[in-house]
Amino acid sequence: LAETGLTPYDRINMGHLALCQGNTRKAAEHYVSAVAGGEMTAEGFLSAFSDDIPVLAANGVNPDDLPILLDYVLMKLKKES
To answer: Around Cβ 10, how many Cβ atoms within 10 Å?
Structure first.
């Protein structure tokens, strides 16, 4: 899968798509890659993600599940840095 030329926002949107499809693991991989590339900070990711929560909820994602997912993503980023 060639993912060159993707912006962090593209990667976040790919994560959102995977999340809406019920693939939390794949979503987390996309979210980690959005920040791991160095173009976006963890704070920028959290801000962008927070802005999208209403859209995710409207597409069947349970907002109560998101803190655990975000904790996982931030933990992975800490381990990789």
So the answer is: 14
Asked if 33 and 1 count as a contact pair (C-beta separation under 8 A), the reply is no
On whether the CB atoms of residues 8 and 35 are closer than 8 A, the answer is yes
* CA 19 to chain CA centroid, nearest Å: 9
**Angle at alpha carbon of residue 50, lines to 47 and 52, rounded to 5°:** 115
Low-confidence ranges of the chain (pLDDT < 50): 1
- Could you tell me the sign of the dihedral formed by the alpha carbons of 59, 65, 70, 75, in that order? negative
Is the overall model pTM greater than 0.90, yes or no? yes
